[in-house]
Amino acid sequence: MLSFFKTLVVAVMNSLHQLLLGQSLVDGEWLTDFNMVIGMDEIFRIEARAIVEGMKLAWLKGYKQVEINCDNVMLIDTMCNEIASISNIAEVRLIHEWCNKDWKVKFRHVLRVSNKVAN
């Protein structure tokens, strides 16, 4: 049985900058955390960038099954329909390109209340 590489994506904002956070786990065990400090931008684009970074990490570690958990329902809906490939947001197009690699990617919306990293 193949392991799923799960990435939980969260963007946390404060008045000075936005801190991008993610955590990755395999078989219920946390594998790694990653974070980036980036400039001010809209939350949709920031969370999309976090997904790209999580996907890169999974690919580099050699996983063939990835589950992306995110509390941004608009982003999950965008990725699950046909408009992602023609989006005017570069990060969304990047996610679409990463999805077309030789692996299985599943997107899952999680409620913010159950997103322990964001709370």
Which residues sit in consecutive blocks of at least 5 with pLDDT less than 50? 13-20, 115-119
- The SS-based structural class is alpha/beta
Helix content: 25-40%
CATH architecture: 2-Layer Sandwich
Separate helix tally: 3
Fold and architecture overview:
By secondary structure, this protein is an alpha/beta fold. The protein has a single domain (5-114), classed as Nucleotidyltransferase, domain 5 (2-Layer Sandwich). 29% of the residues lie in helices and 34% in strands. It has 3 helices and 5 strands, in the order βββαβααβ. It has helices at residues 43-60, 73-79, 90-99; strands at residues 5-13, 18-26, 29-38, 65-70, 104-109. The protein has a 5-stranded mixed beta sheet with strand order 3-2-1-4-5, covered by helices on one side. β1 (5-13) and β2 (18-26) form a beta hairpin. The N and C termini lie far apart (33 Å). This is RNase H type-1 domain-containing protein. Keywords: Signal. InterPro entries: RNase_H-like_dom_plant (IPR044730), RNaseH-like_sf (IPR012337), RNaseH_domain (IPR002156), RNaseH_sf (IPR036397).
Concise description?
With 119 residues, the chain is of the alpha/beta class. 29% of the residues lie in helices and 34% in strands.
